[in-house]
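Fold tokens
===========
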Amino acid sequence: MAKLIEKIGYGFGDMSSSMFWKVFSYYLPFFYSNVFGLSLADAGVLVLVTRIWDAVSDPMMGVIADRTHTRWGKYRPYLLFVAPLFSVAGILLFTTPDWEYGAKLVWAYVTYILMMTVYTGINVPYGAMLGVMTDDSREKTVFSSFRMFFAYGGSFIALAAWEPLVNMFRSAGEGSQDAWQHAMMLVAAACLILFLLCFSLTRERLKTVSTVSIGKDFRALLSNRPWWLLIGAALCFNLFCTVRGATVAYYFADVIGFDAVLRLGSWSILFYAGLFLSIGEVSNMVGVAMTVSLAKRFGKKTTFIGVNVGLFVLSILFFFIPVSPTGFWLMLLFQVLISMLTGIMSPLVWSMYADVSDYAELRYKTASTGLIFSSSSMAQKFGGAIGGAAVLWLLAACGYTPRTDEQMAAQAVLQQPDSALMCLRCLMSFIPAAVALVAILVCRYYPLTSRKMEEIDAELKIQRHS
């Protein structure tokens, strides 16, 4: 059994990744259209193209990591050497040069592709570490739960602090563009420290060696039925999260408004996007804490399906919540419930990928842990690419009017057309509900039940020691 400090150390890695990823997913589309100065159509193409490249590069990184051999292991070295580039790329991503529109668009493509490439270079090996830190399927779920608990903790810190940090720099006399850049500098410094701690506190225990060709690894992957099904289910899950998350900043700016407050007697607090999202991250952490016991009692597959049923129902009901002081509390309650369910889902998916890796090792005699875990990152990024671009394109099609930098600084209220407001409401309700329904249908055919994994674990122990 691994020590508690190692599980915490492993969690620090995704704490760092999630601080960046959530800011990118939830605020970057808004940044591009309202701060950086891109049109909605150009921003949508940018998000789609760069994230598709990012997704395609994941299997390449998985193959490279699988064939890396150092005194620190196969995957841990990337945490040490890529972490500084990770932080620098994040700062460049939120840097707005004072150039003409065409040159700025090129800058956006270069910095976004750089950021996603570096993200792949550190996050794929980090995810694959789960497959070589322990050979026990249940302990992998524990490691995965620590990972996601700290991931949501990092997301909470980043999302709760993001708008106050931007406002702090803005109140110091900086424009919106400089304020966003300097806020990212602080987040990037924290991310660098967390990845270095992850490297120093973790160990790789299983010495797996890929003895087959890259071509055979890919052929085995493509014939792996559980992998295909899990990829589809995971893509739906990430699409669900990205669509809702990328919509929140727009939803609060144009449906709820900048001056909404939560009131309870004489007590009141500003109801803003960062509060809504950060409360969701805390609720995610509660869900993560429930994952191990739920998966143990009901099995991973049944838990996955049950969570998506809950997401489907709650998302539909969200549409009918009124925009009123009472409705604000209901929105917050639904955010808590939905986020608890997505919190259960996150470690569950990563643990299921570890099971798929064990299935592949037993059936195809190939140690392709990095390649399989890179596919999970690929699904995450495809979900992010499709979701982020879809939000921007749907808003453009519905007549949404972006704000100028001056309007953003003044938190100006714009009169959006009814079609744009209805689009925002659907992006928070019916569209995510449809995605959850697809995830249910896909996961229904997933074959790696708890009983099946017990059989695989027993056979693998014999195979690894023979």
Remarks:
- The first helix runs from residue 4 to 36.
- The chain has a mean pLDDT of 86.
- The longest strand covers residues 261-264.
